[in-house]
Amino acid sequence: MRRILRTIYYFLPVQLLLLHFRRYQLLLVFWIVLTLILTGNFAAHFGARSLFLAPEYLGEINYLSMLLLGGCFCVFMMMWHITTFIIHSRRIPDMAATRHAFLVYCLNNSIVPLAFLIFYSVKSVGYQIYEEQLSASQIVFQQSGFYLGFFFVLTLSFTYFFRVSRDFFKNTFARLTAPVQSITTIIPQDHLDKDPEILPARSFINSKLRLAWVKDLGKYHPRVMAAILQRHHRNVVFATFVAYMILLILGVYINNPFLRIPAGGSFLLLFAIILGLVGAVKYFLRSWEALGWIMFTVILSIMVRYKVFDLRSIAYGLDYHRSLEQVYHYRTLRSLFTKFRYQADQRREAKRLQQWKQRVAPGTGRKPPLVVITVSGGGLRSAYWTFRTLQYVDSISGGRLFSNTVMITGASGGMIGAAYWRNVHDAACMGQLQFPYSHTFQENIGKDLLNPIVFSFASIDMISPFNKITLAGQHYTTDRGYAFERELARISSGLLDQPIGYFRQREETGQIPQLIINGTIVNDGRKLMICNQGITYLTQPEYSIDQPAPPIDAVDYCAFFPEQNAHDLLLTSALRMNATFPYILPVVRLPSQPRMNVMDAGLRDNFGIQVASRYLHVMRDWIRENTSEAIFLEIRDTRENDVTANTDQSSLINMVADPLFVIQNKWEAFQSYGYNYVKDFAPAYVDNRMKFITLQYIPQEFSRTAALNFHLTKREKEDIYQSVDHPYNQAEIKKLIRLLKQQ
């Protein structure tokens, strides 16, 4: 047994595996991150698992998507082999005596990649069975596509990269890969750079896939190893360059769906580039590596500070080139949002409501019920659920829900679903659509939005943050925010691809509900409210309008940016600002001094209760005199009595982390429970003639709630779709239908 264990221990693949864990653990981080993504322990809320386990190409999980992902994985794996070979090859000098040194190294260095491939296949098959509900034949077909792409790139690599003479690349990259003449003249090497450790390997796998013994290898000259290393220095630079150019070209043609590879694949190419850079820094700088990374960070910070590039995004349609920009300061807000403007906007809203009433109940003298809709944030899950409930209720009410709704507000994904529902109806009213209750619209709003975001992040944001486009004569940069908007416009068949001013007149005359799209100004925590109509009456509490310094807690977007063509803002940009989930979508900067930075509306109000309750309070006199009932319809993607999972401080990590992150982890629950107090007082505004209707997504299995991100699996879509049939929701819907029929 001791002899067997000794033989295993001195087997080169085992020695290399131990070496990876003993030295340069940073290179293993890439594999660890990928493994954690597949298990759902990393970036689960962002939907990262689906990018790798069920990749999409041209909007579908198909053979081509798996083939492309397999090819990209092979590129990443080969970069791993090249990088580690350059770093570790001096520890296995006998490898130079083999006929195909790099091929032999790859075979012996394949424990980590092979283990990951097996693990990936198991997780991918399980995910596609349970989440995407694919048949066995479909899964086998798609898995074969993955491995075909993998082996195609693998074959190409070994037949071209490492066996064909490349004099052009030799001449091109030789100077870049000679650290002795360049680095050492600036930073002298010291004794820390000398690593005499030699792997005590006694056996290995040769190029014929047979077990061979190191003692049987012939002698070699030190210059042989130097020549082999020099060649592979060129290989890693060239491979990194090729991966970079692929992502750069894909980023330039991001609007071409045929060139938009699966996001998981683009991320693997990005990982390959980073891996090559990390390996190069380690090899070239050696003991000075930490100083190198510090200098890189400092240079990057200087470039951001002096606006060489900006990590923030922009809102498309706004004019960023005007020299006259509003100063974002309380004094400016105080001069704009005056008592006179407050009362003028309030009167205009009363006039709009009067026109709505004449349309709903013309000349009858009857008082119609008025509906205000609030929707919760929650990514694509909330968008899908919001559209499902609104379309369903409106269809069984004979269109009364749409005609009786005067205002819609909320946060994040819910507003995307609500805006799409409103625009579908608007198009039907204008004769552009025949049947607004078609299931096609429901399918559209459930299509993936995560893939273009991540693809753009990998191919533009991290590779070339200087891409330019022109819209309506204005020049803008592109990023993952732009990719999100273009995909949102595409899946909505252009119904969301309009400037907000396109709907201004029909909102003003009460023909369609008014949208109030919110965002959070991270500069100071105020709310940004985007609406076609003047809504200064929602920017401060009513009791304070006579005070010399009222607490202005929100900004009326159109009133603040009149010089920047505020009404030309694309609806998709407004919805993106409203749904800017941290890190998934970039912070949006608006043209003010200093720049107004906007993030997700859910940071302030994830349910839309604040805006809706203030609206009902300000318009209470008109509502009491002209309506039979005020219906507060709340649509949320979480259960009102169980917003977040219960946590127990039963481990050391929980005991330490929970107090630190309690606000972050329980923020949605704090808001939900706190708004119950607001809803207690709201009925008093209208003499208790107010009814609350709450429709909530209730999963069939609480432990398998649809993920909060911009991607939904087939199982999750079915679960959300069927939630409207839950007894609780059916009871609430029946109550709502009775109220709508009272007019």
Instruction: Tell me what portion of residues adopts beta-strand conformation.
Output: 5-15%
Kindly report the average pLDDT value. Answer: 84
User: Any idea what the radius of gyration is?
Assistant: 30 Å
Quaternary state, please?
Answer: single chain
* Percentage of residues assigned to helices: 40-55%
The general outline is: elongated
Tally the beta strands: 15
Number of helices: 29
Main beta-sheet annotation: 9 strands, mixed
Segments where pLDDT lies below 50 for 5+ residues?
164-177, 179-184
How far apart, in Å, are the first and last alpha carbons?
Answer: 88 Å
Task: Provide the structure class.
Answer: alpha/beta
Task: Walk me through what this model shows.
The protein has 743 residues and is α/β, with parallel strands linked by helices. The protein has 29 helices and 15 strands. The strands form four sheets. Strands 4, 5, 8, 9, 10, 11, 13, 14 and 15 form a nine-stranded mixed beta sheet that branches. The chain has a two-stranded antiparallel sheet with strand order 1-2. Strand 1 (203-205) and strand 2 form a beta hairpin. Helix 3 (29-39) runs parallel beside helix 7 (111-130) and helix 16 packs parallel to helix 18. The longest helix is centred in the N-terminal third of the chain and has 31 residues, at 222-252. The chain is elongated and about 105 Å long. 43% of the residues are buried.
